[in-house]
Request: fold
Amino acid sequence: MTRLDAPRVGPVVAPGDPVFRHTTPLDPQAQVVLRDLEREYDTRYGNLFGEPASVEIARYASAAFSAPGGTFLVAEVDGAVVSAGAFMTIDERTVEVKRMWTHAARRGRGLARLVLRELEAEARRRGYTRIVLSTGPRQPEAVRLYLATGYTPLFDSSLDAAQIVIHHFEKELS
Reply:
């Protein structure tokens, strides 16, 4: 049997390509993400919102980002988590994306775009037709990502990021 004739057991992943895994916030790899996300938010925002990032991260129960209503997606390369994101249900047609993260050493390689694409695909598979999300004024790379991937800004983009504060977006899934 030639290689082309061999049965496919699963997705073919080239070395260095991310492998996606839907899990929960209680997964040890998700915990790595959440700890670094907390550090990142505290570094970027300090006390801008009047509370440490740990309060925002703990605001929602783990069940919110677990099946059937949510998911926590990790992207791994060679067993190490390199990027992640999550969503939770808002209503019967809408999910909210949260917890978008990419390891600092892996940024600028399109990993967040791949994570966002997989979250959108999972939302479609579950029958959702709309995604909402938000980011803050000190994350211009996130704003660029959401604009580049078809999200509609729900704010006046002519204003300075600090004036907008929370940058809300939405996207209808086809």
Observations:
- The domain at 16-172 is CATH 3.40.630.30 (Aminopeptidase).
